[in-house]
Design a protein that fits this description.
Blueprint lengths: L1 H15 L6 E2 L5 E4 L4 E5 L6 H14 L8 E9 L9 E5 L22 E3 H6 L9
Antiparallel strand pairs: 1-2, 2-3, 3-5, 4-5, 4-6
Length: 133
């Protein structure tokens, strides 16, 4: 009986906690929606390129329901976060930016607007071990 009461109280507490529009990827990056089409990936401790793509793939799959072959586009490269005010974030979208020429599917160190990768390719970046010098 005591165990059932404890579970009921725990469930009630969980139901009263507000759900945020932000999510944390399994690699520790925070992902926040900027508007209906753009989302930001914000680093916490790690700041490697693979981590940004990994978090973008995680958000695209879990939150936006994107398929594995759906493309993720860099909307804006490194810059301040519009959603949180943190100094560094990269903006992504499942829609191709219209104000830039389409880039190759490979990516650069600086995240150029228009670069893209499939959700599956970006998810593959989750298993890359970061190298710090």
């Amino acid at each position: 009986m005591k165990k059932v009461m404890t579970l009921a109280v725990s469930a009630a507490i969980l139901l009263t906690v507000p759900v945020s529009s932000a999510s944390a990827a399994r690699n520790g990056y925070q992902t926040v929606s900027v508007n209906n089409t753009v989302f930001e990936v914000i680093p916490r401790a790690r700041q490697d390129v693979d981590g940004y793509w990994c978090a973008a793939a995680d958000y695209a799959r879990r939150t936006l329901g994107a398929g594995w072959q759906q493309r993720i586009y860099v909307w804006r490269g490194y810059g301040p976060s519009e959603a949180t005010g943190r100094r560094t974030a990269v903006q992504f979208s499942l829609q191709q930016p219209t104000n830039v020429a389409q880039q190759s599917s490979s990516f650069s160190v600086g995240f150029k607007a228009g670069e893209s990768m499939s959700v599956q390719g970006a998810n593959g970046r989750c298993h890359v071990v970061p190298r710090f010098r």
